[in-house]
C-alpha cells in the first residue's frame, strides 16, 4: 500500500475511533494526539492541533480531550459512515417506509429498498426499485435529521422510479404538473412545480 493510502487509512481509523469514543465514552489521549500529529504533518494547523502538540499529555483532562477531539473532527469535516453510526441507516430505512406509502398511493408496484454499492467509495445509500437504481445517492450524514432524511429519500426514490417507469411521478392533481420533495417549516413535503408552487401534502400523505 502506498504511503499516502496508508496515511489516509490511519486517519480514517483514528477519526472513526475518536467519534465512537466521544459518543460512548472512554476517549484517551493517544488517538487524539496521533491524529493531531498526522494533521500537522499534512499542513493542517488549527488551534486544536497546536494545543494538543504544545501541552503536556499528562495535563489534558477528560474535558480537554472531549473538546479537542470534537474540534479535530470538525476541522477535517468528519462525517460518520453507516458502519460507525448504524442509526443513520435506520433513519433512512424508516424514511423509505414512509415514502413507499406515496408510491403505492400512485398505483406503482415493485420492491423498494435501500442499498449500498462496492463501487461507491463514499459509502452512500441508494434507493433501489425493481432491482435498478439511478439518480441521487444519499450521504450517511443526511440520516441525522428525520425530516431532512425523509425529503432526501423521497427525492432519491422519485429519481429512481421515474427513470425506470419513464413517466413523471408524483403529479399534482390540480395542475397536472410534477411534484418535488423538500422541507417546509421543518416538515418534509411534496410541492407542485407550477408557477408559484404550492404544498400538496406531507411526504407519506399524498391523497
What is the strand and helix layout of this fold?
Elements: H1 3-24, H2 29-41, H3 47-54, H4 62-75, H5 86-105, E1 112-115, E2 126-129, E3 132-133, H6 146-165, E4 179-184, E5 187-192, E6 199-202
Helix pairs in contact: 1-2, 1-4, 2-3, 2-4, 3-4, 5-6
What's the order of the H and E elements?
HHHHHEEEHEEE
Strand tally, please? 6
Radius of gyration: 22 Å
- Helical run tally: 6
Name the beta content range. 5-15%
Q: What is the molecular shape?
A: elongated
Q: Span between N and C termini?
A: 55 Å
Helix content: 40-55%
What does the model show?
With 207 residues, the protein is α+β, with helices and mostly antiparallel strands. It has two domains: 3-75, no CATH class; 86-202, no CATH class. It contains six helices and six strands, in the order αααααβββαβββ. The termini are far apart. The model has no long low-confidence stretch (mean pLDDT 91).
Concise summary:
The protein has about 210 residues and is an alpha+beta fold. About 45% of the residues lie in helices and about 15% in strands.
Amino acid at each position: 500500500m502506498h504511503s499516502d493510502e496508508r496515511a489516509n487509512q490511519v486517519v480514517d481509523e483514528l477519526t472513526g475511533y475518536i467519534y465512537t469514543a466521544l459518543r460512548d465514552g472512554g476517549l484517551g489521549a493517544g488517538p487524539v494526539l496521533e491524529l493531531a500529529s498526522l494533521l500537522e504533518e499534512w499542513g493542517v494547523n488549527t488551534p486544536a492541533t497546536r494545543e494538543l502538540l504544545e501541552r503536556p499529555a499528562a495535563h489534558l483532562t477528560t474535558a480537554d480531550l472531549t473538546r479537542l477531539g470534537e474540534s479535530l473532527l470538525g476541522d477535517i469535516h468528519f462525517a460518520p459512515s453507516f458502519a460507525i453510526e448504524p442509526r443513520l441507516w435506520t433513519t433512512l430505512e424508516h424514511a423509505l417506509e414512509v415514502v413507499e406509502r406515496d408510491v403505492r398511493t400512485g398505483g406503482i408496484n415493485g420492491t423498494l429498498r435501500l442499498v449500498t454499492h462496492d463501487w461507491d467509495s463514499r459509502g452512500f445509500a441508494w434507493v433501489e426499485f425493481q432491482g435498478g437504481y439511478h439518480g441521487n445517492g444519499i450521504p450517511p450524514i443526511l440520516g441525522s435529521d428525520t425530516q431532512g432524511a425523509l425529503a432526501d429519500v423521497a427525492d432519491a426514490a422519485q429519481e429512481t422510479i421515474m427513470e425506470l417507469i419513464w413517466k413523471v411521478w408524483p403529479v399534482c392533481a390540480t395542475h397536472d404538473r410534477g411534484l418535488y420533495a423538500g422541507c417546509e417549516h421543518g416538515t418534509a413535503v411534496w410541492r407542485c412545480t407550477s408557477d408559484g408552487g404550492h404544498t400538496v401534502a406531507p411526504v407519506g400523505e399524498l391523497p
